Amino acid sequence: xxxxxxxxxxxxxxxxxxxxxxxxxxxxxxxxxxxxxxxxxxxxxxxxxxxxxxxxxxxxxxxxxxxxxxxxxxxxxxxxxxxxxxxxxxxxxxxxxxxxxxxxxxxxxxxxxxxxxxxxxxxxxxxxxxxxxxxxxxxxxxxxxxxxxxxxxxxxxxxxxxxxxxxxxxxxxxxxxxxxx
Length: 181
What we know:
This protein has 181 residues and is of the alpha+beta class. It folds into 2 domains: 29-84, no CATH class; 88-174, Double Stranded RNA Binding Domain, CATH 3.30.160. Helix content is 33%, strand content 27%. It has helices spanning 62-65, 68-80, 84-96, 140-143, 145-159, 161-171, and strands spanning 4-9, 29-34, 44-51, 54-61, 109-113, 120-127, 133-139. α3 (84-96) packs across α6. The radius of gyration is 24 Å and the shape is elongated.
């Protein structure tokens, strides 16, 4: 007896040409059929979804939901229960949260040293509305260490102000807070 009898990603149908690519939870979810009693889990469906950047899995046993079709329907409801704003929040979180290797304390701000000359500079970088990479460099020899760092941080914060406002709006229920006024 096999551990998994079928695996499928939701939705299974192909998108017809010209149909918009919807930002749905089903695109980040999968269903898995489990039928192996040796596994110690009752037969049923397991739904896996991405929430806040983490994989969340939940098992839906046939016994509890009244059969294979009912447990699958419940698993599909669970998988589809991810609001579309969660995907937007996740994208904003990736842009705004510092990574583990971030030494400046702010994502998109780094200090570099040119190897041949030894010239140090701070760089602020971000993507513009068209997806192009933008960067601004601030030389330590021209501005001094602290001023160059501050200028890079200010440039980054100014560039991503809309992302910050949108992130705050999503967290407080859709009310945008503009801190520049």
